[in-house]
Amino acid sequence: MSSLLEMKNISKSFSGNKVLSGVNLLVEEGEVHALLGENGAGKSTLMKILGGIYTKDGGTISIDGEEVQIHSVDDARDKGVSIIHQELMLAEHLTIAENIFMGREIKNKAGIVNLKKQEQIAQGFLDQYEIGLESNLRLDKLTIAKQQMVEIIRAVSFGAKIIVMDEPTSSLSDAEVEILYEMIRVLKKKAVAVIYISHRLNELYDITDRITVLRDGESVGTVVTKETKRQQLISMMVGRDLSSYYTKTDNVVNETVLKVTDLSDGNKVKRVNFDLKKGEILGIAGLVGAGRSETVECLFGLTQKKAGTIEYKGKEVAFKNPREAMAQGFGFVPEDRKQEGLFLQSDVRFNTTINIVERFLKKLLWNRQKENEIVSEKIDDMHIKVTGASQIVSKLSGGNQQKVLIARWLCSTRTVLILDEPTRGVDVKTKAEIYALIDNLAKSGMSIIMVSSELPELINMSDRVMVMCNGYSTGILKRDELSQENIMTLATTEVGA
Amino acid sequence: MEAKKTKENWFASFGRSVLAGLKTNGGIIIGLIIICIILGIMTDSFLTIRNFTNIMRQISINVILACGMTMVIILGGIDLSVGSIIAVSGCLCCGLITNTGVPSYAAIPISILAGTLVGIFNGAVISRTTIPPFIVTLAMMNIGRGFARIYTKATTILVDDELFTFIGSGTVLGGIPIHIVYMVIVIAVSALILNRTKLGRNIYAVGDNKQAAAYSGIHAKKVTMTVFVIMGFFAACAGIISSARTFSGQFNVGEGAEMDAISAVVLGGTSMSGGIGHLSGTIIGCVVIGVLNNGMNILGIDSSWQYVVKGIVVLLAVFIDYFKKIRE
After folding, report:
1. Which residues in chain A have their CB less than 8 angstroms from residue B9's CB?
2. Cα dihedral B198, B203, B204, B205 sign
3. Tell me: the pLDDT tens digits for A136-194?
4. Cβ contact A341–B215 (<8 Å)
5. pTM score, whole prediction
6. Does the complex come out with an ipTM higher than 0.90?
7. I want to staple A399 with a disulfide (CB 3.0 to 4.6 A). Which of A311, A430, A481, B237 is the partner?
8. What is the number of CB-based contacts under 8 A between chain A and chain B?
9. Nearest-CA residue of chain A relative to B8?
């Protein structure tokens, strides 16, 4: 007995880049089947092939046991496949019925649209799925959750047997997610298959029957949701044991590198106290608005300190600008790599060497070889996935962009490296690589200050964590005191003037 | 041993730069060749050595301006005052020599300084305030033009001076016209700045992402100031050369020069949003504009239509670049 949908051995390349290779996906009718994988794993490419937006290079697609060729979105729809995208594709000023019939309006002989008939038929569908809405309601009067349902009904009205939902809960509240789940359960009862794409593992455990994991364009395997533990899913996505996701060794040397006392920048940073040892990774935690980024920016000389002292290697310092901080051995990888870090229109080479240009540009002579050596070394050491040093940085994935930015600061010896949200928007595999890198740097004697909003990251990677609340440092937790509760408690401890 | 290596380096580097320039600008070079072929067919006098040397002379002022403008646009700015700077330095120089009796070897540096002062003003205001370069340089364009008009009392100041004449139309090393020398020097200096100095990299960095440049310790203020001063200096020199050629100072000299300079830069593929661009493209852009001007003159096309044609060519180049980007 064949499955409702059988995608076998699918392969797809874009300009020589193999994006999918031998991918298999089998979905049964009435099943909620999750498609899981990190950014770049190939999920959206696979679905675009199913939905007729791309054509596959190799492999077969069969629906209901019959092999099909899908060359266009119309083909896909005729075969019963509908994709519900993250951004809803509905016309807000039209009614539910008009939206459902958009593109195939019911017209009378004179060519005029028969609104009443459309509303009648639409209502039939709405009632069938127990939606409880009137089909003549304008879409902009509905919540996003309800609009999403209309989009699903539209798919159903086309006779969809397979509905692909791409991150359907990204703009829904918890209550609305429940409503979506209800709708999915009704679809199941009507033998419609749902392919569910989401990063939120909790949801997968709530509503899905089976999960197929993709990694780097290949299928890793299909598991039954109920029988699979979270760690197993993550290790399938990442390709290695969860235990090596974080790399943390003890490298702290009892030598104080930095001592900050009562620091204030006259604005968001009100009174901050902490010290940093050689080889230590000091995490900085706090809620949004606590003043963490502002603290490290003040340290780096981007803003001026108005009060307090900063003692660096035993001497008092007050950097007037980043250039002075850099000269003293500080490095800074900012929070928003696109807005604050990278030169998106330039290539990897430019972005990597911008801080150490004088090493190969001397007296109007350009030592290209030396520059290329520096860049290749970084690309190799940090496993940065690029087509070459001349690739424009805007074309890289988030994880590789972050690596380039970090590489920039590692071109010269740093004593203190400040990282602000170092793994934001980075895929799981690259995150692990960055953690290993940070640990290695600490091992070599570098001191690291890591501002982060991700508690597991802070807890696993920090030797100590300084917590801030509304511009004040509220406490420093030692490694054996690190826990979500302790951090959150200090993050919400109000300090008086 | 060291000196020989350096000489070989320069030659090899120059060859490499030319090849690189050909690669990045392949499209517009093909366009240029097509235009030349068409013009060659339409008229006998186009494809002659004499005509090509004419074109070289005609574009020399624009090349000087466009090299500076390339730096300004890569920085993310724009300078509309260059035409007026030409008038300021040119008219001042003529007036000093003829009316005030200042010897030319003194009048020339003074006038160049005066023109550069406009650049210094532009740089100071643009680097320290958030007033858009467009506005600041537009204002100076008017002020400069006004000054030139007042100073010359709206009449032409004629100059009869040996040094001045040499600067305008002399030859060096037995036959090389001096305007070729100017172009070579300006192109070389600009290329060196953009490609082989820290300042050059900083210009690209600030033009691409001012914030990120700050995080890397780059002083956006200093870089901005420097670029506009260089532009002012180049324009001031162009003003002396321009007046020297016509042996006179006229207040309307250089009118519209900023447009040709900007067009050349845009044709050459440099983006108006900053952070990206090549000097090689600008040079080819200058040649294209020069060829078009020259060809249309030979064909006797009405000068009004010449404006239209030039505008269309720039638009075409921008569209082609746009579609190339879309395809990526």
Report:
1. 365
2. positive
3. 899 888 888 888 889 999 998 888 999 999 888 877 777 888 889 999 999 999 999 99
4. yes
5. 0.75
6. no
7. A430
8. 70
9. A365
